[in-house]
Automatic annotation (TrEMBL), chain A:
The family this protein is said to belong to: Belongs to the eukaryotic ATPase B chain family.
Keyword Transport belongs to the record: yes
Main location: mitochondrion
Subunit structure: F-type ATPases have 2 components, CF(1) - the catalytic core - and CF(0) - the membrane proton channel. CF(1) and CF(0) have multiple subunits.
Listed Gene3D superfamilies: 1.20.5.2210
GO cellular component: mitochondrial inner membrane; proton-transporting ATP synthase complex
Organism: Cherax quadricarinatus (Australian red claw crayfish)
Domain of life: Eukaryota
Listed GO MF terms: proton-transporting ATP synthase activity, rotational mechanism
Subcellular compartments: Mitochondrion; Mitochondrion inner membrane
Listed name of the protein: ATP synthase subunit b
Statement: the UniProt record of this protein carries the keyword Calcium: no
Function: Subunit b, of the mitochondrial membrane ATP synthase complex (F(1)F(0) ATP synthase or Complex V) that produces ATP from ADP in the presence of a proton gradient across the membrane which is generated by electron transport complexes of the respiratory chain. ATP synthase complex consist of a soluble F(1) head domain - the catalytic core - and a membrane F(1) domain - the membrane proton channel. These two domains are linked by a central stalk rotating inside the F(1) region and a stationary peripheral stalk.
InterPro entries recorded: ATP_synth_Bsub_B/MI25, ATP_synth_F0_suB
TrEMBL record, chain B:
Pfam families attached to this UniProt entry: WRW
Primary residence: mitochondrion
Protein name: Mitochondrial ATP synthase F chain
Residues spanning the membrane: 92-111
Highest taxon listed in the record's lineage: Eukaryota
Keywords for the protein's UniProt record, in alphabetical order: ATP synthesis, CF(0), Hydrogen ion transport, Ion transport, Membrane, Mitochondrion, Transmembrane, Transmembrane helix, Transport
Biological process (GO), any one: proton motive force-driven mitochondrial ATP synthesis
Localisation: Mitochondrion membrane
Source organism (scientific name): Cherax quadricarinatus
Family, per entry: Belongs to the ATPase F chain family.
Amino acid sequence: MLSRIASRSVQELRPILVAVRPTSTAAAVDKTEERDEVNFPRRVRPIEPGKVRMGFIPEEWFQFLYPKTGVTGPYVLGVGLATFLCSKEIYVMEHEYYTGLSILLMMVYSVKKFGPPLAKYLDKEIEEIESSWVNYREGSIANMKTSIEKEKEAQWCAQGEKMLFDAKRENVALQLEAAYRERLVSVYSEVKKRLDYQLETANVKTRLHQKHMVDWIVSNVKSSITPAQEAAALKQCFADLKALAPKAA
Amino acid sequence: ATVSFRRLQWSVLTPVANMGIGEYPAEYNRKVHGPYDPARFYGKADIPFGQVKLGQLGAWLGRRRITGLPGAVSRAYWSWQHKYFLPKKTGFAPFGQLMVGLMAFFYAINYGKIIHHRNHKYHW
C-alpha cells in the first residue's frame, strides 16, 4: 500500500524537462504507423548554441562567403560597408556614438573577464538540477527493484513458514498423542487397581471362609470325639507302636 | 458548472480566433508529424529560395501569400530561439544579436533626427 502511494507521488512530482518531449498521453499517438520519422524527426534539445563571431554574427554567413572570398572576405565586407556608411555619413558619428563605443568596450571587457566563470557556475547549477531529476527517477527505479527483490525474498521466506507450520502441526499432534497415551495409561492403572481390589477382597473373603470353615469343622470334630472313642483310639495307637517296635530293633 | 478557461478565452477572442492565431496550422497532423514544432513549416514543401532558377522566380514569388506572413515571422522567431536561446549552454550570442538588432532598429526609426547632427555638409 505504501509503495502505491510512493509511486503516485512520483507521478505528480515528475518534473517537465525543457526538452521537447511528448506527454505520456500523446506517446501512444506518436508511435502509430503513419508517423513520418524521416521527414519530421523528433526535435532534440541541442547542448551548444549556434556559433557566432564577435558576439553576434552567425558563423554560417562566414561559411557562405568562404568559397568565393576566402577567410578575409566577410571582414573586408564589414570594413568596407562601415567605411561607406561613415564616409557618406549615413551612420552619423555623433556624441551618442562615442557613448556607445565606450559602453561597448566596457561590455567586451566584462564579458571576456566574467563570462567564463559565470558560464561555469550556471552550468553547474543546471547540472545539479538536471541530475537531481535524473537521480530521482533512477533512484526510484532502483528502489523499486530492491523492493521487488525484497518482496521475492519475503515470498521465499513465507514458503519456509509453511514448513514451520507443518512442524508445529506435527508437534501438536505428538503432544496430543502423548496426552492420549498418558490418559490411556492412567485409565489402565485405575481399572487395574479396581480389579486388583476386587480380586483381593474376593481372596480375603475365600480365605476367611476357608479358615472359618476349617476351624468350625475341626472344632466340631473335636467336640464330637467322645471319651470312649478317644480311649479306643489311644489303645489302637499303642498296639500299632508295639507292632512296629520289634521291626526297628 | 465549471467553464474551462480555454473556452472563455476563445469566446472573448473569436474574431481573432478565426484568423488561426493560437491554433495549430491547418496542415499539421499529430499522427504524421509528431509533437508540434513551431519552427517547422507543415504545408506543402516548395523549392527553397536558394535553389530557385531565374526563370522560375516569377512563379515562385506568385506562390507566396501575404496571409502566411505572420506564420513565417513566428517560425523565424522560433527557429532563432531553437538555435541560439534554448540550448542548454547558451552563450552571449542572443544578447549580442538582440543588442545589435535593437540598435539598428532604433537608429532606423530615429534617422530623421540623427541626420541633422551630421559633422560635414558635403560628402563624396
